[in-house]
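Narrative of accomplishments. A recurring question from our advisory board has been how the design workflow behaves on a single, concrete structure rather than in aggregate. To address it, we present the structure tokens for one chain from the evaluation set, followed by the sequence designed for it. No filtering or post-editing was applied between the two.
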């Protein structure tokens, strides 16, 4: 096979990106920065835009701008969501498609002054949970304590793949963040930040704007072919 043919084959690769490209699904206010919880006191609480908050009697959940001593750092921005037993729900514009892998990522933690860590995170298709993360089915490690007594943040990730004959096809997706608080018994609070959701249909995507890494791979292949061709001569 001539070098010209091989070179042409590599050029074709520039137009194709390998399958398995995950596309982000839009989430409004994913890091709970809107609105800004104003005021002169710390911490300051408020209700997050684009999320529906439900609290049973005696429970309060929402968004808060924590004290600078609450955590060593926050995953994204200056505010986080919290649940003392209630839920924060957002219904998305996306619906379930066939043969698609959905991956939900939520950063979780707890305040140093809170009690037990009892998260309850769900991705719903209609009213059916397709992803459910909790202590009994975690999406990552539990928060650990830092030397100063604050807790770390952990990225909890879990995926679900729909089938070609999935009965949930067309159902609207929604995200629910909550905690199994023991009201009146335990000062439980789960905190959330930087929520994201991606969809991967596994289809071959064609692009005329390949990633920079693709050029590196092709260049390496051409160099390797040139070296081999020189030795074969």
């Amino acid at each position: 096979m001539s070098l010209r043919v091989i070179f042409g084959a590599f050029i074709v690769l520039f137009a194709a990106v390998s399958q398995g490209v995950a596309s982000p699904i839009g989430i409004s206010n994913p890091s709970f920065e809107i609105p800004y919880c104003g005021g002169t006191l710390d911490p300051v609480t408020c209700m997050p835009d684009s999320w529906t908050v439900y609290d049973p009697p005696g429970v309060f959940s929402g968004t808060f701008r924590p004290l600078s001593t609450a955590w060593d750092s926050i995953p994204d921005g200056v505010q986080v969501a919290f649940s003392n037993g209630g839920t924060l729900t957002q219904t998305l514009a996306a619906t379930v498609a066939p043969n698609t892998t959905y991956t939900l990522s939520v950063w979780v933690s707890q305040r140093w002054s809170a009690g037990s860590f009892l998260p309850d995170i769900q991705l719903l298709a209609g009213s059916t949970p397709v992803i459910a993360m909790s202590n009994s089915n975690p999406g990552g490690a539990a928060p650990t304590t830092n030397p100063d007594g604050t807790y770390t943040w952990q990225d909890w990730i879990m995926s679900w793949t729909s089938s070609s004959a999935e009965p949930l096809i067309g159902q609207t997706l929604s995200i629910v963040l909550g905690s199994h608080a023991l009201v009146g018994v335990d000062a439980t609070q789960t905190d959330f930040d930087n929520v994201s959701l991606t969809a991967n249909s596994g289809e071959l995507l064609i692009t005329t704007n390949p990633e920079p890494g693709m050029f590196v791979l092709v260049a390496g292949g051409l160099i390797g072919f040139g070296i081999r061709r020189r030795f074969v001569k």
